[in-house]
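Final report, Chapter 2: Outcomes

The project's central promise was a pipeline that accepts a single protein chain and returns its three-dimensional structure in a standardized token representation, suitable for archiving and comparison. That pipeline is now operational. To close this chapter, we reproduce one record exactly as it appears in the project archive, with the input sequence first and the structure output second.
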Amino acid sequence: MRTFKFGSAGYLKRANEKAEKLGNFSVKYSSTGKKKLDVFNKKGDKIADIGHRDYSDYLQHGSESRRESYHKRHAKTAKVKFSNSYFSKNILW
């Protein structure tokens, strides 16, 4: 897995690729305090804000063991379709 620095064009491009695979969603860098990304539906409505700027994610570190731990910690909440946790798991992790 290629890693990207948060704030780089590559990071946003990879996050957008993953968002599109979920069903025509897009992401932009967040306008909300400490969050990393805002998620938008195909109409352009903001539907979620994900990630915390002070913590790294799989796009940044590429560690499979950390990814696995994240998935275990968030197993219940990430199953709720279109929740912040769902988008975080599927875009950042």
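Archive annotation: Residues 65 and 84 are 22 Å apart (CA to CA).
This record, like all others produced under the grant, will remain available to the consortium after the project formally closes.
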